[in-house]
Write a structure and sequence with these properties.
alpha+beta; Alpha-Beta Plaits; elongated; binds iron/sulfur cluster
Length: 159
């Protein structure tokens, strides 16, 4: 008896599934053919943190206060700086995060006194090893600066 009941339940489940599939056939698509097509990201999306570029300086405003490193609950931020002059302020020389352990809590962004940290819009990240999750934020910033320069040059040619 249990055997026939299983067959009946299986058939019923199949019909129910096909009804759902058939109904969806005549409704508008809610998926896209990624990666050929991409949907706009939500403004609330949080990618890994990165250094912000300021128009007035053309670079970040990190003062190497170490607040972000001390505040990070996951201990994934490593900031280093050095003094150019004996009594002068420190200059940022290295900013590395281990994104594999970042919880995206946002405390580093909130605590930064110069607002020089932001969330990236990056979501296409892949890696084979843990080392691939070590992000050098200065190197990433330099790439962005170069990209902005190229974009301005292209706009200048087009104008
Ligand atoms: S978002 Fe949170 S866990 Fe990630 S680096 Fe900032 S403070 Fe650390
Ligand atoms: S909190 Fe801001 S200014 Fe201070 S070290 Fe971090 S990024 Fe730099």
């Amino acid at each position: 008896m249990g055997y026939f009941k299983d067959i009946f339940d299986g058939g019923l489940s199949l019909i129910e599934g096909m009804v759902v599939t058939g109904r969806r056939l005549f409704q508008p698509l809610i998926t896209v053919q990624y990666p050929r097509k991409k949907i706009p990201l939500s403004s609330a999306y949080r990618g890994h943190i990165e250094l912000k570029i300021f128009e007035e300086t053309g670079t970040h405003k990190c003062i190497v206060c170490m607040n972000c490193e001390k505040t990070c609950p996951s201990g994934v931020i490593r900031v280093q700086g050095e003094k150019q002059k004996e009594k002068g302020p420190k200059t940022l020389t290295s900013y590395v995060i281990d994104f594999s352990k970042c919880s995206l809590c946002g405390l580093c962004v909130e605590i930064c006194p110069t607002s020089t940290l932001k969330y990236s819009r990056e979501y296409e990240l892949v890696g084979d090893t843990r080392d691939d999750c070590q992000f050098d934020l200065i190197a990433r910033l330099e790439k962005q600066v170069e990209k902005k320069k190229d974009e301005k040059a292209t706009q200048g040619i087009a104008a």
